[in-house]
Specification:
This protein is α+β, with helices and mostly antiparallel strands. The chain contains 5 helices and 19 strands. Strands 10-11-12-9-13-19-18-17-16 form a 9-stranded mixed sheet. An 8-stranded mixed sheet has the order 2-3-4-1-5-8-7-6, sandwiched between helices. A two-stranded antiparallel ribbon has the order 14-15. The longest helix is centred in the N-terminal third of the chain and has 11 residues. The protein is globular, with a radius of gyration of 19 Å.
C-alpha cells in the first residue's frame, strides 16, 4: 500500500480562544473573514471564517467543557493560540492504514458518522501540532450567530501561508509531503543562514511553509539561533499565519481573555519571544513593525508588519501588502 494519502488537502488552521467574540475584532473586522459555518458541540464550539482567496481559519471556544474537557485543558495549560491543522481526505479508513504503514499512530478515531469521520495525529508524532484527518460527505454551512460583526474595517485579506517551525525539516517533509500529499514548490535557506525552509501547497490555500533552525556553531559552542531558542526542546510550533491585504495594516491589539492565561513555553522560552529583531510601533501600541529578520519571512516575500502573539490571542500574524508589492518565494 502506498503511504502517501492521495487527494489529501489542507482544509484549515484552527486557533483556540476563550470566547468567539474575543477573536471577531481581529479575524472578522480587521482581516475581513466571513462566517461560513460553526456551532456548539459538547466540549467545544468551532467557527470557520473564510478569506478572500478561500483560505480558512477555524476559531475554537470551550463549550460544556465539563463533559469533554480537551479544549479546556489545552487553554489551561498553554493559553490561547494555534491548536491544530485539518486535512480533508477522500477515504479516511484507507488513510488510517496508510498513516500506520508510514509509522504514525492515529488516535481518537471516529468512523461512526458517515457525514463526518475523523482521526488525529498526536503532536509528538506530528511535529508539535495536532493534525486532524477528516472525511466529510459535504461542505457544511450554517448561519452566523447573533452578534457576529457585519462591519469590515478594511477590504478582505487573503490567508496565504501558515508557517510552521519544526526542529527537523526532514521529519516535517515526511509528514506533510510524504504522508499528506503536499507538493514542494520551493526549498531554500534564509539569507543569514540560520534557518531552512520548504514551501508545500495543495489545491487550495494556504501554502504551508516549514522552517527549521540551522546550527551556526559547533554543539560545544553556543550554536543556538533565535528560531532554535524559540522552539526549545519542542518538535515544532506554529510560528505565524501570513495574510496578504491590499491596504496598509493599522491594527489595534485584540481583546484578551478575562482569565489570565500562562505563557506557552518551550524549554523555558516564553512563547511570545522568538528572539527576532523587532521594534514596537510607536503610535497606539498597534503591534510590532519588523526591523530585522523574522523567522519564516524571506526578502522576496516583501515588506510586512508583525502582530505578536501577546497582541493577538496567542497567535502571531504576519501582514503583507498587495500582490503588486511583493513576489512570493515560490513564484
Amino acid at each position: 500500500m502506498p503511504t502517501t494519502i492521495a487527494g489529501a488537502t489542507l482544509d484549515h488552521v484552527a486557533v483556540a480562544v476563550e470566547r468567539w467574540p474575543d477573536a471577531w475584532p481581529r479575524y472578522a473586522v480587521d482581516l475581513g473573514g466571513t462566517w461560513t459555518s460553526g456551532g456548539l458541540n459538547v466540549g467545544f464550539g468551532p467557527a470557520q471564517l473564510r478569506y478572500a482567496n478561500g483560505g480558512r481559519v477555524e476559531v475554537l471556544q470551550p463549550w460544556q467543557a465539563e463533559d469533554n474537557p480537551f479544549l479546556r485543558r489545552f487553554l489551561d495549560r498553554h493559553g490561547p493560540g494555534p491548536h491544530h491543522m485539518t486535512f480533508k481526505v477522500p477515504d479516511l479508513a484507507g488513510a488510517l492504514g496508510q498513516a500506520e504503514d508510514a509509522g504514525f499512530s492515529p488516535v481518537n478515531v471516529d468512523l461512526t458518522n458517515a457525514d463526518w469521520m475523523e482521526a488525529f495525529l498526536h503532536p509528538k508524532q506530528a511535529t508539535g501540532i495536532v493534525v486532524q484527518l477528516a472525511q466529510a460527505a459535504y461542505a457544511w454551512e450554517s448561519p452566523a450567530p447573533e452578534g457576529f460583526p457585519t462591519e469590515r474595517r478594511q477590504p478582505p485579506a487573503s490567508l496565504v501561508r501558515a508557517t510552521h517551525a519544526v526542529a527537523d525539516l526532514q521529519s516535517g517533509l515526511a509528514l506533510f509531503e510524504g504522508l499528506l500529499d503536499g507538493r514542494v514548490r520551493a526549498r531554500g535557506t534564509a539569507p543569514d543562514g540560520t534557518w531552512e525552509f520548504a514551501d508545500l501547497e495543495w489545491p487550495t490555500p494556504p501554502v504551508l511553509r516549514l522552517v527549521a533552525p540551522i546550527r551556526v556553531a559547533p554543539p560545544s559552542e553556543s550554536g543556538d539561533t533565535p528560531l532554535r531558542a524559540w522552539l526549545g526542546t519542542l518538535p515544532g510550533r506554529l510560528h505565524h499565519l501570513a495574510f496578504e491585504a491590499a491596504f496598509e495594516p493599522a491594527f489595534e491589539p485584540a481583546v484578551q481573555p478575562a482569565v489570565e492565561q500562562p505563557p506557552r513555553r518551550g524549554d523555558g522560552v516564553p512563547r511570545q519571544d522568538d528572539g527576532s529583531d523587532t521594534a514596537h510601533r510607536g503610535a497606539g501600541g498597534t503591534g510590532t513593525v519588523t526591523a530585522g529578520p523574522v523567522p519564516g519571512v524571506l526578502p522576496a516575500d516583501g515588506p510586512c508588519d508583525v502582530i505578536e502573539p501577546e497582541d493577538n490571542l496567542g497567535t502571531r500574524l504576519v501582514l503583507f501588502g498587495s500582490p503588486d508589492d511583493h513576489t512570493d518565494s515560490g513564484a
